[in-house]
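In this supplementary section we document a worked example of the pipeline. Step one takes a protein sequence of length 293 as its only input; no multiple sequence alignment statistics are reported here. Step two produces a three-dimensional model, which step three serialises into structure tokens for compact storage. The input and output of this example are shown verbatim.
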Amino acid sequence: MQLLDGKIAAQSVKDRLTEEVKKLVSRGLRPPHLAAILVGQNGASETYVASKIRNCAETGFRSSLVRMDENVSEEALKAEIARLNQDDSVDGILVQLPLPKQIREDNIIQLIDPDKDVDGFHPMNTGRMVQGLPSYIPATPYGIMMLLEHYKIDTQGKHAVVIGRSNIVGRPISVLLNQDGPRGNCTVTVCHSRTRNLAEICRQADIIVAALGKPRFLKADMVKEGSVVIDVGITRVPDTTKKTGFAIQGDVDFAEVSSKCSYITPVPGGVGLMTIAALLQNTYHAYSRRNNT
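The serialised model returned by step three reads:
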């Protein structure tokens, strides 16, 4: 069993981007600029946004954080997005999800300029991705593909099972694994809460992507020997032995499953770090496209 170490792969992406930013600055150009909007004070969201801002700084990117009250109106949030859409110094915009109940996420996602949609959630980017056209790919699926590329995982003709069908992870990663490309060309089965004989389907998989949000859901008896397991889950579970009062668990029972795998991602330290690396890469692409560099 070999770990698909997100820390190593993400650092490789960040090192390359850092060098690119240094070249830009040496030419008298500004660095890429990512703007994040954080609504409310959700603990997990605070952690995620802080990590994104820290990684921007480490890579030489500029970042801005716009904080808005938990009770903010949808119209006020829309106005802030419109302002950032018009700001020529901003290359990428992300709105940290989830949003409060009074705001419809789909309304907000569709308002972001597709050329600044570095989260890759806008329907225009989704459609272009499905057709294999240049687009901003959602950061977590993009990060998974980067991870597979870094470790040169052979996907050609393999059977990939994706557990979960969200627009953020499950659906886009199923498309990417199926597309013609060096880390694609899989035969993909997408499973969900209504899937029958899920364990049997998983046992047929060469590659499993677990993205359903249920801690330690995937057990050893659901995995065949030598499979590649990608754990997208990141759930806070109570743990009185931790100073924080919680521990982070993935969707895979790592202790059980790892001994049967050829490759497996850890949680934490796997896909989560690659998600941020992919976000930075998308922001750099947005900067390059907007500035013809």
